[in-house]
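DM from R.C. (forwarded with permission)

"hey, sorry to bug you on a friday — could you get me a structure for this? deadline for the figure draft is monday and I only need the backbone to look sensible"
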Amino acid sequence: MKKFKWLIVLLALAAVIGSAAAFFLWSLDAVTKNRFENPWLIWLLPLVGCLMGFYYRFHGKSVHSANALIVDDFQNESTQIPSRLAPSILVSTLVTHAFGGSAGREGTAVHMGAGIAASFARFVASTSKAQHLLILCGISAGFGAVFGTPFAGAVFALEFTRQKLLSKNLIPCLLTALAAHYICLAWGTLHTLYPSIPFPSNIFSLLWKGIVLAAILALAGRFFITASRFTSDKFKTWFPHEAVRGTIGGLLIIGLFLWAGTSDYLGLGVLEENQSSLTLTKFFSPDLHAPAIAWLWKLAFTIVTLSAGFKGGEVTPLFFIGAALGNSIAWFLGAPIELFAGIAMITFFSATTKTPYASWIMGIELLGWKMFAPLALIIWITHKLSGKKSIYASVNVSR
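My reply, with the result:
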């Protein structure tokens, strides 16, 4: 009877999170297309940053550092995730993208899932152990539904919170993630489609090129983490008031936009504003020779956006940065473009988040099962070379 009760609870949780994810993805596309049609919205970004800063200073202080809050919930039983986490992150992420901030979706997926699960836990979880299980399932469902990768979602929740992967928590996490994923699809949601990557026949001759790719990605990952932490710390030191921080961040993003001379590095980087736009999936094309510093531009836009207090996440920008860098390295080394773009997209995510198992599974779910061997090798090498630090400051790894 108890197991049946938990099954009903997890399915109900999956239904709510899967529906929320579908609404979020639909809204994200809508606000992005609206920005394409109204490019003048970028000039309002400093004002938006100011207003968002005021909100988080006076009404959202308890959910401002959501990653640390979630991890702390697993380490300190007195910590509780507020109910306002889910609506706060959803609205602030949509606002960030509506006006051109360079952010992703994973932060929203994780925080939204954790927030909804915490609300469920107040009614159905009588112990901290049960509460933690529901939050893990919520994170799994949010990540899996937003990215269309339920298996990776379940593993990401455990890696992100530094729980044991092979534990009894894995099954309920996977069940909730799968249910949320299919509920999200039932609403007609379309996820980003990546090209099918043919398995190269000369894989062993590409081995040394793959090692070079791994080494470069490890260095780039270290650079992203260091630059992110440095910029975030300086923003907080120089501009302690969140509203001032958001205003300055908005002005800097406008400055980067004028300097780059293109809007390609604004927003998510998935939808195409025009035929010449650089998008994530275009880096897989053998016909596209990406600008050598395209990855660096996206890196700068993303770091400034998130350091200034705008909301979203890092994963899709990390995909963009990795795929752009993989495209450039493939051209330089004479390697298959789509293969290196795909491997670099997933591996850069792994190097910066320190979630190698979730990244590997996500790569298989997005790019096809034939990629399991090359992804495993490059992710492993990069993980060993990329250091202990993660973009999630509260969840660094120990070796």
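R.C.: lifesaver. The mean pLDDT is 89.
me: no worries. The longest helix spans residues 2-37.
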